[in-house]
Model the fold of this input.
Amino acid sequence: MKSEDIVRSIKEIAERNIKDREKLNTAIEIAYEDIRDGNADFKFTEISESSPPHNACAIDGSRYIVPVHDNIFVIARAVLIRGNDKGNKEIPPEIEQEFKITSNYYDENIVGNKSILLMLQLETSLLDKCKDVNVIMIDGPLIDPPIYYQDSHIDGFPDLEDYTKMRATKIIEKREKSMVIGISKRFSQRLLVNYFSNRGMKQISKSTENFLLSFLFLKYRMEKEIYNTPLSIGPIEWDLFFQHERKLEDLKSLEDAYQMYREKFQEAGLKLISYYYQKDFSSPIGRIDMLNLKEEEPGKELIYVNRWAVSQVKEITILNKLADDLSNVSKKESERLISLYNLFTMSNMEKEDLILKRLGKSNY
Done:
């Protein structure tokens, strides 16, 4: 291709994208007006109410994958942080944690998916240690992972169906005495994009959820001149959102995952509700999931999130930030553990096996 043809092609792409963005912005402007004027199933809410005295805990986890020759190691950790608010916020230094290291000979991609379930299983098991608390804040969505897929059994790792049942059961058990909140700092599920697409705003289907929300929050703040006020958009009732026949392709796996939880939630008289939350104009937007009784007014959980929220922190609250930091499995830590594994294996090798290993030591 000639240079002038390359330039022409790039120019055409740029011009087309500019036109698409102009159409998208117009569609989002209409969506904003629908919310503002009360013509949508959710609304903007300025959060000003203070939370009463309470005890809280936050849970987060991480995992590290290390290929060692023909073996795949997974190191996973989950951490629980407590916070007390009796007028002044306090964070005791004691933490709870779950740790597991396992391995398998399967393909790294398969083990990678399983490692997520292992990490989430450790996080979920820590719910049992959230005792005498009013609020539990879990990193990520309540329905996690937010996809459903065919899952093969691998020794040393949980199966998706068994894990889902365990997570739903434990969340419901904790919900009897505590508020259980999921805080998603990254969300690819386009719930609002799908909602407005079904209202005839087809151009919005080309938007990400984060772009749409950033526009909506900023537009409201500019119009009301409230740049430092905590703000939410909601409630988003999952049952209502998934009643639409037409769904974006990327929501189908989320719907499948939701169905795995929905039956158990309904049996307990609970419904899944979400809000989008922003501390102030310079802070990231998070999705806040909660379980409400069917006759219960939704959204009271937001005042507790807002109480622990910190400006410009991607984990939204200081408790979740600390849990994220302390659960991190570093490369240095994983290298120490693998060195210990190599020490054990080498000490049990025959002489000729040891020679072979040293010849191929770059793989270990």
Summary: The CA atoms of residues 5 and 11 lie 10 Å apart.
